[in-house]
Amino acid sequence: MSDSTANSPKRPKSASTRELEDKLDSLRADMDEIMKALAHKAEDEVADVKGKIGETAEDLMADLRGALNEIRKKAGTAEQVIETNTREHPLQSLALAFGLGFLISIVMRR
Q1: SS3 2
Q2: Cα dist from 37 to 40, 47, 63, whole Å
Q3: Which of 10, 91, 94, 110 is buried deepest, with most CB atoms within 10 A?
Q4: What confidence score (pLDDT) does residue 110 get?
Q5: Is residue 8 over pLDDT 70?
Q6: CA 88 to each of CA 44, 78, 82, 85, 92: distance values in angstroms, whole numbers, following the listed order
Q7: Residue 95 CA from chain centroid, whole number
Q8: Three-class secondary structure of residue 8 per DSSP
Q9: pLDDT tier, 1 (very low <50, low <70, confident <90, very high otherwise)
Q10: CA atoms of 13 and 100, how far apart (whole Å)
Q11: In angstroms, rounded to a whole number, what is the distance separating the alpha carbons of residues 99 and 85?
Q12: In this structure, are residues 93 and 86 in contact, taking their beta carbons and an 8 Å threshold?
């Protein structure tokens, strides 16, 4: 069975068909513009998010630097306290070091 419209010669397009095609072309152009606008909007949003992430990362790094400085101060203070106590009580310090070493060796064997 053959299709009669496939074998028939092309007929001139009617005015309503041309109008529909023109409207379709117009819709395609409008869709292209909308898609371009959405792409630009997405690019702007991504740039904003990247900027916010960068600011947050900088803030976190500043907080981490502050915490690290605080830890260094406390470690220095602890070192001074340990040194002072060791000088004032050498035998107790030696016994404590021996006891801790002994306990650690027992735990490591298990």
Answers
A1: coil
A2: 5, 15, 39
A3: 94
A4: 80
A5: no
A6: 66, 15, 10, 5, 9
A7: 51
A8: coil
A9: very low
A10: 99
A11: 17
A12: yes
Taking the C-alpha atoms of residue 40 and residue 93, their distance in angstroms, rounded to an integer, is 69
Side chain identity at residue 63, one-letter code: D
- Note the pLDDT tens digit of each residue in 10-67: 666 787 888 999 999 999 999 999 999 999 999 999 999 999 999 999 999 999 999 9
The gap from C-alpha 66 to its chain's centroid, in whole angstroms, comes to 23
Cα(72)–Cα(79) distance, integer angstroms:
10
Q: 9 pLDDT band (50/70/90 cuts)?
A: low
The distance between the two most distant Cα atoms of the chain, rounded to a whole number of Å, is 114
